């Protein structure tokens, strides 16, 4: 049987660890087993148990304190991830060989890992060799996305991860619960955006004709091919969390091996009808 994985990505501060924690709690309520693997060597705290922690293999602080390397925070993190890529056997041993696993990989926030460095692509290929079905989950802070050009920047970051990793990807706007009612209403247009209308609404803010053409070309790329859409994520909304989880499960075909019985169609609804009996096939026609 296949195993399943979410690669939880996004800029620093976008809510990746909170997303993992929320999904673990939500899955427990559904009696689903979901495990988390921490792949951020600079992580300091998370409030959920992990089945594997990259800090047991290497830590950013140790790399930065090494006088022979002399790396700063970003260089140290890249070094840690490249070291991790050369030691995938550690991850294989930590994951074990349990069938039907569902694992969240809490990844670092440095964008270069998803644009021009091969580390995350190598991780995806390795997981696929281990019979994982992998879905990328790219998070962006909704508080950052309330302005059109910041939104375009977030879309391009999500798009770069999609192109680099070449796996199914679900894009999510996090921290919806922190928005004011006015901001929530305003941000709805960004969930399924009309990029050309957005350009017209903000045409007065574009001073340079050269950059206006570039922005229009980027908007055309996004709009014409419908390549990036976002789902809202409010950690206090159980129904919204379930919708996000359903989208991800569908993309990796989670549960396709489970036996499914389609309920019988009922043309008219008789009074006092017991629906439990319908689904069990016990109601006489």
UniProtKB/TrEMBL annotation:
Any GO MF annotation of the entry: GTP binding
InterPro entries: Gpn, Gpn3, P-loop_NTPase
Residues annotated as transmembrane: none
Nucleus in keyword set: no
Keyword field: GTP-binding, Hydrolase, Nucleotide-binding
CDD domains per the UniProt record, alphabetical: GPN3 (cd17872)
UniProt keyword Protein biosynthesis present: no
Primary role: Small GTPase required for proper localization of RNA polymerase II (RNAPII). May act at an RNAP assembly step prior to nuclear import. Small GTPase required for proper nuclear import of RNA polymerase II and III (RNAPII and RNAPIII). May act at an RNAP assembly step prior to nuclear import.
Assembly and binders: Binds to RNA polymerase II (RNAPII).
Family: Belongs to the GPN-loop GTPase family.
Record-given protein name: GPN-loop GTPase 3
